[in-house]
Design brief:
With about 725 residues, the chain is of the alpha/beta class. The protein folds into four domains: about 80 residues, no CATH class; about 150 residues, 2-Layer Sandwich (Bacterial polysaccharide co-polymerase-like); about 130 residues, Helix Hairpins, CATH 1.10.287; about 240 residues, Rossmann fold (3-Layer(aba) Sandwich), CATH 3.40.50. It is built from 17 helices and 14 strands. Strands 7-14-13-8-12-9-11-10 form an eight-stranded mixed sheet, with helices on both faces. Strands 2-3-1-6 form a four-stranded antiparallel sheet. The protein is elongated. This is Lipopolysaccharide biosynthesis protein.
C-alpha cells in the first residue's frame, strides 16, 4: 500500500491464519508472480547482539574449555606421515616383430587404467603382499590383530591408489606413524604392482602357447583322418589325381576330344583331295600333283613334245624319228593316265581310312563320357571329402604358425609398467600447519559454544544471570532515544502528555482489557529457537471471541474518525503478533475498515521496503510508518494523503521493545496502546522496562491483554469495561 493512496481491497480483507504465535507466515507469491520484498520473523542483528550480550560470558567460558580440549587432543593424537611412489603405465608398445602380442598394452583405454587401479586395491592383490611384508608384526598397522580380514581392513585404510589427472601416472601413497616405514611400504606396493603387470603378460603368453600346443594335437589327428578318407575313397573308386584339380578320366576325355577334332579335320582334308582328283579326271584337267613319279612323267612328256616339234621343223612330218617319238609320247601318256587313276584310288583310300578313324575315336569318346556320368556321384563325394581335408589343413597350418610365433614371444615379454619415482621418507606430517589448526580450533570452539548456549537457553526458557544489568542499560538507551526522536515528531496537542511523561516514575497499575486462556492443550505445540519462538504451528488460533472487550474499549476511545491502536509485546513468547492479527480480523468481521501494519526492523542499516502480504497485512520500517501516520498532519497535506480518512481502525504491531527500542516513538501517533503479556509476567523486568518507556505517554490510554491466562480466571466483562487490574 503506497502512502497517501487509498487502501486496496486486500488491505481490509480478513487475514489468513498465521503460521506461529510470534512470527508472521512467510509471504506467498503474489498473483502477478512478484514475491514480497522481505520476510519478517528471521534472525535480526539486534536480536543476535542482545543474545551475545546476555550470554557472552558463558560462550567464552565454554569456548576456552573446548579450545583446551582441542589442544590436548592435538597433543595426544599420533602424527601420521604419507609417502608416495609414482608408477607409470606407458601406453606405447615395443614392436620387435610384426605379430600382435597375446596380451597387448592398455593403449588409450582410460577404463583399463582405472581397472588396474581397482585390482591393486583388491584383496587378491593385497593378501599375498601383507603376508610377504609381515604386516602382522607391525603394531602401528596391525594393532595386535592377526586375523587376515582385520589386517586387510587396516592396511587398506592406510593405502591410497589414485590416478594423477588424465595422465598414465598412478600415485601409490601409504600412511604410517614413521616416515621410513611409510616410504618402505609405498615402494614395496609399487614394486609388487609392476611385477604383477609383467607377470600377467608372461602368464597370458604361456597359457596361450600351451593351449595352442594342445590344440595342434587335436587338429593334426583331424587332418590325418580327413586325408586318409580322401585316399581311401580314391582307391575304392579308382580315381587318380592328375593335378590341377583333375582326374585321369577327365584328362582322358580331354585327350580323346582333341583326337576326334584332329581326325575330323584330316577326314575333311582327305575328302577334299579325293573330290578334287575326281573333278580333274572328269574334266581331263591336270591338277596340281605332288607325287614325284607323275611329275617326272609329265616333265618327260613335255621334253618329248619339244623334240617332236623340232624334228618336224627339221625333218618334216614323215621322218622315221618322228614315228619313234610319237610312240614314246603315247607310252608316256598311258603311264600318266595309270598314275592318275592310282592317285584317285589313293585319295579314296585315305579318305575312307580317315573316316574310319574318326568314327572309332567318336565311339571311344562316347564310351568314356558314359563312364564319367556313371562315376559322377563318386566325384561329388570325393570333392566333399577333399574340401573337408583342405579346411582342416588350412586351420592346422594357421594354428601351427601362431604357435611358433607365440612360443618365440615368450622370450620377448616386457612390462609397460615402470616405477617413475620411488617414495622417499617424508619430512612433514599429514597435519595442516599449526597456525591453521589453531585458527580452526578457535573458530570451531566459538561456534560450538554459541550453539550449545543457544540450545540450552532455548530448552530452559529462563533469562541469563546478566539479564538485569543488560536490561538496565537498555532502559537508559530507550530513554535517551525517546528524548531524541519523539520530541520533534509530537504534535502540539500531545505536548502536555510528553512533558508529563518526562517524569521518571513508572506508570500506575494498568487495566486488563482482555484475557486469553491457555489454549496450548488444544493445539499442537510449536517448535522454536533461541532467537524467535515459537516459529511454526499448523494454524493460527482465532482469538476474536476473547478480544471482543478490547474492540468495545477501542470504540469508547474519545477520538472521532479513525483510531490508531499500537500493539506491543512484553517479554518472550507474549503472542503480540497473533493478538494483532486476530484483532484486525475481528474488526473486519464487525464491518470496520481495518488495516494491520507490522514494524519491520532495519537490516545492515538499511530501511526495509513497504511490502504488502497476501494475508492482508503490510510491513514497513519505522521511518515509513512514522511518515504514513503523520502525513495528514502536515501543513501542506492533502486529504487523500491522510491514511486516517480511509480506515476506521489502524493497528500497528511494533513487536518487542527489547528487540526494537526505537519503536516507542510510534506511541506519539497512537490513540490506544495495547500491551500483550503472558500470565504471571506482570511484574517481570520486561514489564517494568516497557512501562518505564511508556511513562512519557500517560495521556494515551494503555491497557493489557493477558495471554495464556490460567483456567478459572475472570471472564470477559459483558459491557466491555476493564476486566481488572494487573497483579
Amino acid at each position: 500500500m503506497a502512502f497517501g493512496s487509498r487502501a486496496s481491497p486486500r488491505s481490509i480483507a480478513p487475514t489468513e491464519p498465521a503460521a506461529s504465535w510470534e512470527a508472521p507466515r512467510a509471504a506467498r507469491t503474489k498473483p502477478d508472480g512478484a514475491a514480497p520484498a522481505l520476510i519478517k520473523g528471521s534472525l535480526t542483528v539486534s536480536g543476535a547482539l542482545a543474545f551475545l550480550r546476555e550470554n557472552g560470558r558463558r560462550i567464552l567460558t565454554l569456548a576456552l574449555a573446548l579450545f583446551a580440549l582441542g589442544i590436548i587432543a592435538l597433543m595426544v593424537l599420533p602424527v601420521r606421515y604419507a609417502a608416495t611412489a609414482l608408477v607409470v603405465l606407458d601406453p606405447r608398445e615395443l614392436r620387435v616383430t610384426t605379430e600382435q602380442d597375446v596380451l597387448p598394452g592398455i593403449g588409450q583405454d582410460a577404463a583399463a587404467l582405472q581397472s588396474q587401479i581397482e585390482i591393486a586395491k583388491s584383496d587378491g592383490f593385497l593378501r599375498p603382499l601383507i603376508e610377504q611384508l609381515k604386516i602382522a608384526d607391525d603394531d602401528d598397522i596391525a594393532g595386535g590383530h592377526t586375523d587376515m580380514t582385520r589386517l586387510l581392513e587396516k592396511f587398506r585404510s592406510r593405502l591410497e591408489i589414485t590416478r594423477r589427472g588424465l595422465t598414465y601416472v598412478i600415485a601409490i601413497s601409504f600412511i604410517s606413524n614413521r616416515p621410513e616405514r611409510a616410504a618402505y611400504y609405498a615402494n614395496a606396493i609399487a614394486a609388487a604392482f609392476v611385477a604383477s603387470q609383467g607377470r600377467v603378460r608372461t602368464e597370458a603368453t604361456d597359457e596361450a602357447a600351451d593351449w595352442l600346443k594342445d590344440r595342434l594335437k587335436a587338429l593334426n589327428e583331424r587332418l590325418r583322418a580327413s586325408e586318409d578318407a580322401v585316399a581311401a575313397f580314391r582307391l575304392e573308386h579308382k580315381i587318380l589325381n592328375a593335378g590341377k584339380d583333375s582326374t585321369t578320366q577327365q584328362l582322358r576325355v580331354t585327350d580323346i576330344n582333341q583326337q576326334v577334332s584332329a581326325a575330323r579335320l584330316r577326314t575333311e582334308e582327305a575328302k577334299a583331295r579325293y573330290e578334287q582328283v575326281q573333278r580333274d579326271l572328269k574334266a581331263n584337267v591336270e591338277g596340281p600333283v605332288k607325287q614325284d613319279l607323275l611329275s617326272m612323267l609329265r616333265a618327260q612328256r613335255s621334253t618329248l613334245n619339244d623334240q617332236i616339234a623340232q624334228k618336224k621343223a627339221v625333218y618334216g612330218d614323215r621322218h622315221p624319228d618322228l614315228a619313234i617319238s610319237y610312240s614314246q609320247l603315247a607310252d608316256i601318256n598311258r603311264q600318266i593316265e595309270v598314275e592318275r587313276k592310282k592317285n584317285i584310288d589313293t585319295a579314296k583310300s585315305e579318305y575312307e581310312a580317315q573316316l574310319e578313324q574318326q568314327k572309332a575315336l567318336e565311339k571311344q569318346l562316347k564310351e568314356v563320357e558314359t563312364k564319367m556320368l556313371v562315376d559322377g556321384q563318386a566325384l561329388v563325394k570325393l570333392q566333399e571329402l577333399q574340401r573337408d581335408a583342405d579346411a582342416n589343413k588350412n586351420i592346422y597350418e594357421q594354428f601351427l604358425s601362431r604357435f611358433k610365433t607365440t612360443n618365440e614371444q615368450r622370450q620377448l615379454q616386457n612390462s609397460q609398467t615402470k616405477i617413475a619415482s620411488p617414495a622417499i621418507p617424508p619430512l612433514r606430517s599429514t597435519r595442516p600447519p599449526l597456525a591453521l589448526l589453531l585458527a580452526a580450533l578457535v573458530i570451531g570452539s566459538l561456534l560450538t559454544s554459541t550453539a550449545a548456549v543457544a540450545v540450552m537457553a532455548s530448552m530452559s526458557g529462563e533469562p541469563a544471570p546478566a539479564e538485569a544489568v543488560v536490561h538496565a542499560a537498555e532502559d537508559r538507551q530507550v530513554q535517551a532515544r525517546v528524548q531524541q526522536q519523539v520530541q520533534p515528531q509530537v504534535q502540539p496537542q500531545v505536548q502536555p502528555a510528553v512533558a508529563a511523561a518526562a517524569r521518571p516514575e513508572a506508570m500506575p497499575r494498568l487495566p486488563v482489557w482482555a484475557r486469553i486462556p491457555d489454549l496450548a492443550s488444544t493445539t499442537p505445540s510449536a517448535t522454536g529457537t533461541v532467537w524467535q519462538r515459537p516459529i511454526a504451528t499448523p494454524a493460527e488460533l482465532d482469538l476474536g471471541p476473547y478480544l471482543r472487550p478490547l474492540l468495545e474499549r477501542i470504540d469508547r476511545v474519545p477520538v472521532r474518525g479513525c483510531k490508531v491502536a499500537l500493539v506491543l509485546s512484553v517479554g518472550k513468547s507474549a503472542g503480540g503478533n497473533t493478538v494483532a492479527r486476530s484483532l484486525n480480523r475481528a474488526a473486519v468481521n464487525r464491518g470496520m475498515m481495518s488495516v494491520l501494519i507490522r514494524l519491520q526492523g532495519e537490516f545492515a542499516g538499511h530501511e526495509p521496503p513497504v511490502t504488502e502480504w497476501n494475508d492482508g497485512s503490510t510491513t514497513a520500517g519505522l521511518q515509513s510508518i512514522d511518515e504514513l501516520l503523520s502525513a495528514g498532519r502536515k501543513a501542506d497535506a492533502r486529504p487523500e494523503d491522510d491514511i486516517r480518512s480511509e480506515f476506521d481502525l489502524i493497528i500497528v504491531h511494533a513487536g518487542n521493545l527489547a528487540l526494537q527500542p526505537d519503536a516507542i516513538a510510534l506511541a506519539a501517533h497512537a490513540d490506544l496502546i495495547v500491551l500483550v503479556v503472558r500470565a504471571g509476567e506482570h511484574g517481570s523486568a520486561a514489564m517494568r522496562r516497557v512501562t518505564a518507556a511508556l511513562s512519557r505517554y500517560e495521556a494515551v490510554p494503555t491497557g493489557l491483554v493477558v495471554n495464556h491466562a490460567p483456567a478459572g480466571s475472570q471472564a470477559p466483562h459483558p459491557e466491555g469495561g476493564a476486566l481488572g487490574l494487573a497483579v
